[in-house]
């Protein structure tokens, strides 16, 4: 199981590198989907399956719609692909930085935290992620409303930045 988790962590990091290194939104969308799917798989492997499913549905259902809409507004006739020199230079710098950080932080306290949320309570009637979800909706209502407001504000900011000097849908194509 530990090797599978390490493989998923490496795929997660490579997905984030793909998002950060590619300036074209068309190719960076694949890295975003890979990162979201592998991140939710990591959560599910640690026993937080309900939160993983909710995160996957909300993230890919909501934020990728905004991402696709903003990518459609930035029509680039010749986007840079994965094998362009500038993208490969960015990828190599990011992979080198992640490798140096991994060597620096390897060992120590972070190597002991590989247990799942349900590993220490074998006879419990409640799962850890179900209790967390109920607390999120009962005690964290203010935080949920705040996060929803921030996401709506982010939508308007992204659409305003993408619009630029044109007139939105009334522009000449």
TrEMBL record:
Subcellular location: Mitochondrion membrane
UniProt key word Protease: no
Highest rank taxon of the organism: Eukaryota
E.C. designation(s): 7.1.1.2
A GO-annotated cellular component: mitochondrial membrane
Keyword vocabulary terms for this entry: Electron transport, Membrane, Mitochondrion, NAD, Respiratory chain, Signal, Translocase, Transmembrane, Transmembrane helix, Transport, Ubiquinone
Stored InterPro entries: ComplexI_Subunit6, NADH_UbQ/plastoQ_OxRdtase_su6, Nuo/plastoQ_OxRdtase_6_NuoJ
The protein's role, per its UniProt record: Core subunit of the mitochondrial membrane respiratory chain NADH dehydrogenase (Complex I) which catalyzes electron transfer from NADH through the respiratory chain, using ubiquinone as an electron acceptor. Essential for the catalytic activity and assembly of complex I.
UniProt-recorded name of the protein: NADH-ubiquinone oxidoreductase chain 6
The species this protein was found in: Hydrolagus lemures
Lineage: Eukaryota, Metazoa, Chordata, Craniata, Vertebrata
């Amino acid at each position: 199981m530990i090797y599978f988790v390490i493989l998923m962590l490496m795929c997660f990091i490579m997905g984030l590198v793909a998002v950060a290194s590619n300036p074209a939104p068309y190719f960076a969308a694949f890295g975003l989907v890979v990162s979201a799917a592998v991140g939710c798989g990591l959560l599910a492997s640690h026993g937080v399956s309900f939160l993983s499913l909710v995160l996957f549905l909300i993230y890919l259902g909501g934020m990728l719609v905004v991402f696709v809409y903003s990518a459609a507004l930035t029509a680039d006739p010749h986007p840079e692909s994965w094998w362009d020199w500038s993208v490969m230079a960015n990828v190599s710098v990011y992979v080198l930085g992640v490798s140096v950080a991994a060597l620096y932080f390897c060992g120590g306290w972070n190597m002991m935290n590989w247990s799942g949320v349900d590993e220490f309570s074998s006879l419990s009637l409640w799962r850890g992620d179900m209790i967390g979800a109920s607390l999120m909706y009962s005690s964290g209502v203010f935080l949920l409303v705040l996060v929803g407001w921030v996401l709506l504000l982010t939508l308007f900011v992204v659409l305003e930045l993408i619009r630029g000097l044109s007139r939105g849908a009334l522009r000449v194509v």
